[in-house]
Every structure is written in structure tokens, then in C-alpha cells.
What we know:
The chain is an alpha+beta fold. It has two domains: 2-84, Glutaredoxin (3-Layer(aba) Sandwich); 88-193, Glutathione S-transferase Yfyf (Class Pi), Chain A, domain 2 (Up-down Bundle). It contains eight helices and four strands; from the N terminus they run βαβαββαααααα. It has helices at residues 11-22, 43-46, 68-78, 91-115, 124-150, 155-170, 181-191, 194-197, and strands at residues 2-6, 29-33, 56-58, 64-65. The protein has a four-stranded mixed β-sheet. Helix 1 (11-22) links the parallel strand 1 and strand 2 (29-33). Helix 1 packs across helix 6 and helix 4 (91-115) packs antiparallel against helix 5 (124-150). The longest helix is centred in the last third of the chain and has 27 residues, at 124-150. The model has no long low-confidence stretch (mean pLDDT 95).
Amino acid sequence: MLQLHWSPRSPYVRKVMIVVHELGLADRIELTRSVAVTTEPNPGIMAVNPLNKIPTLVLEDGRPLYDSRVICEYLAHSCGRTAFFRPDDRYFETLRRQALGDGLLDLMIAWRGERLRPQAIRSAAHERAFALKLDRCLAWLERETEALALDPFDIGHVAIGCALAYVDFRFADRNWKAEHASLARWHGAFEARPAALASPIIDD
């Protein structure tokens, strides 16, 4: 049995869980609820991941894997579903999309950290930069929506879908769907997939 250090609030965990369900691997994985806080290292996580981060996957022989990119690719290879990473001339396009989704998540998490700081010490320059980068990412993805819809579903779609869900989850005030109708429709279809429905991100 594989063991996954997991939390329903982590968008990176959700990315892994969507892949788990897309690949039909849910019955092979034991979920271990784990809290990873930057200022409070978790001994259970630190025992297998010195970075104190989730998701962390522990293999049956005790070896750990991290981060979400490594875990997702391992899971796809472990069940022979390598097409989930497009092992053809579109491989690097798939990885680029995954990098865009993961990068957008990194951006949103950093921005949330800035928003949680006391108002008196927040950086207006950082907040402006975060907002600009988000707007540029959304505009880029709006232009790419048709290709996303036509291409076979793979890890790039999962990463982008999870990133957009996190914008909704933590930055609902941005109301991004109002100005990106095509991307909003694509994301609605993404969230309707059984694997996405089985892996909600919730503040629990």
C-alpha cells in the first residue's frame, strides 16, 4: 500500500489526487492527514521529507517521493499510463502547461502569504506584481483555451485546472471568470470530471 501525506486544503495534494482518480489508483493509496506549516515542522512529514511539505508519497518499500510533479509522473508510469505525460513530440508542451499551472499556484500561495501579513507591513509593490502576473496568466490561458479543449487530457490540464480552482478558493474577489469566458467554460468542464469531483479542495 502506498501512503500519501495529504490535506484537503492543499492544491498540490489535489493535483495528485485528481491524477490518482483519473488513473484508477485510489484503492492502492492510504491517505494520512498531515498538517505542513512553515513555522511548525511536522515530525511525521519530516521523517520522510526534510522539506516538511505535502504531498509526500511513501512507496511500499519505504522510499519517499516528492513533489507533486514527481509523484504524478511516478503514478502514471507505475500503471503503464505514460500517455498522461504525452510521450511524443508534445511532451515538452505538456510539461510547459504543467509548469504554468504550478507556477500560477506558487504565485497565488505567495500572494496569500502577503495578504495574511498585518496591513501595516504588507508590500504594495509585491501585491501589484502578483496581480499583474495573475492577469497575464489568465490572458495567456484564455488564448490557449481552444487547444486545451481539443488536446487529450493530461497532466498539463490537471495543473492548470487546480491552479484556477485555487484562485476561486482563496481569491474569489478577483472574479476572473467575468473577463475570461472561454477559460471559465473550460474550467467548468474540468471541475465536472469525476476525478475532480472526487477531490475537492476545502478549508477543513
